[in-house]
Amino acid sequence: MKLRSLAAAVAVAAAFFTVPADAHHSFNTFFDMSKTVKIEGVVTSFRLVSPHSEMMVDVPDASGKPVAWRITARTGAVNARREGWKPEDFIGKRVTVEGNPTRREGGTAMAAGVVTLLDGGRVVCLGGCPGGPPVQ
Amino acid sequence: MTGTRHATCVTALAFAALMLAASQAAAQTDEEFDKIFPFLGQWDPGISGPDGQDRGNCGGRVGENGEKLVNCTMPVGRLPLNSRGEAWMKYVDQLQSPTQADCAQIAFPAVLAENLFISAYPGRLITEHPSNPWHLTRTVWMNQAGPTPLPGELFQHGLSRGRFDGNDLIIETDHFTFDPDGLEDHMHMASSVRKKVTERYRLIDDNSMRLIITLDDPTFLTRPFVYAFMFNKAGANGPRQGWRQCDADSARREQEFAYPVKKYPDAR
Fold first, then answer.
1. Residue B118, pLDDT score
2. Which listed residue, of B173, B216, B230, B268, carries a Cα 20 to 30 Å from A44's Cα?
């Protein structure tokens, strides 16, 4: 019975600790990880969600018309919050984003990569770069 | 008299059922329960790290755009798909993948390549599988305790029953629903209602454990497929986990914006 009590105590104590694991998503299917692309535009939304946080950026085309780009962060909601990302720090800000482009021809999406806020120069790694969160 | 006899008979049957249930609940002895103790806690397969185990590179299989599929959850190169299985692989497209497009939880055995947390209670174990974007929790009924499914009653993650074979913990799971990503969710290989997953957990020492998985599904495999992972005890020093919830809108938008091909032009 002693063992039972100890087992229950260990179970309860350790229930607070587990390691986040890899996602079951092949970035290589959606994005060409051997190429990089860089865009400049204004952040319209930044959602800290799983499986991957999502940033939307309006990028002007040749005629100046805004085209929506979808930026897939390489980590989910838990690590995003752990990194201290706050949507309000990004929304409405002009940024450059550098990452791996979608394999879709003419597609407006990428896996980032590095986001640089042009006003102030803050650099944020959305995954897959030094100093960033664990890739998921 | 007939009514009294009937009532007596029903009472006797109910009593017998109650006694049977009680004996099943008590089927797990203290000695057996104590065998669980070294299995309890958090286990890490070490797959995420740079020196982690190679859980399989999808056996050289390529996606619809000719891209190499990577990071499969098992050594897919040896997965003995039968002709139906190969036909599925030709048919499948990723737009219909429920784990990608609809936030469906990842199935057993794929999720077994993730971290593992085991806790124990009389008559049952709980295994937890934190896997972005879900934290999956499973009840394993020990020594024939637990529910008896009705004929044809099926569950997304099956019905798991556990027992000890010597000091090895055995978990057998069946009664799965059909799952388009049920055998492997990176190559998107389906599993049928005939899928059966047998997990054999064997302690090597206090901090090391081998998990030997036997995966069978006669609908798609020519024979049972056996593979294994090593786990290290992670203790209480691992990062604190957080509950995860998949965002289906975002998952679908990823396909809408980034998925490179449309295999079936008339399909949504």
1. 92
2. B268
Q: B259 at the A interface (CB within 8 A)? A: yes
Q: Is B184 on the interface with A (CB under 8 A)?
A: no
What is the average pLDDT across B232-254?
A: 74
Q: Which CATH architecture has domain A20-125?
A: Beta Barrel (2.40)
Chain segment B49-93, per-residue pLDDT in tens: 445 555 667 888 888 778 778 778 888 889 999 999 999 999 998
- Closest approach of A123 to chain B, Cα-based (Å): 24
Say whether the ipTM exceeds 0.90. Answer: no
| Tokens at A112, concatenated | 């980032």
Distance CA B176, CA B159 (A): 7
**Omega of the bond leading into A133 within 30 degrees of 0 (cis):** no
Whether A108 and A49 have beta carbons less than 8 Å apart is answered as no
Does the distance separating the beta carbons of A76 and B258 come in below 8 Å?
no
SS3 (DSSP) at B197: strand
The number of C-beta contacts closer than 8 angstroms across A and B is 177
Domain residue limits, chain A: 20-125
- Chain B residues with beta carbon closer than 8 angstroms to that of A109: 254, 257-258
Percent of chain A with pLDDT over 90: 46
Residues near B4 by beta carbon (within 8 Å), at least 6 away in sequence: none
pLDDT computed for residue A7 by the predictor: 43
Contact indicator for A132, A73 with CB cutoff of 8 Å: no
Mutate which: A3, A17, A19, A135, vs B, most B CBs within 10 A: A19
Q: Which of A74, A29, A103, A101 is nearest to B93 (CA)?
A: A29
The 10 Å Cβ neighbour count of residue B28 is 23
Name the more confident of B187 and B156: B156
Domain covering B33-258: architecture? Beta Barrel (2.40)
Q: Are A58 and B98 in contact (CB under 8 A)?
A: no
Q: Are strands A66-73 and A94-101 parallel, antiparallel or unpaired?
A: unpaired
B245 in A contact zone (CB under 8 Å): yes
Q: Which of B106, B110, B228 is nearest to B168 (CA)?
A: B228
DSSP B152: T
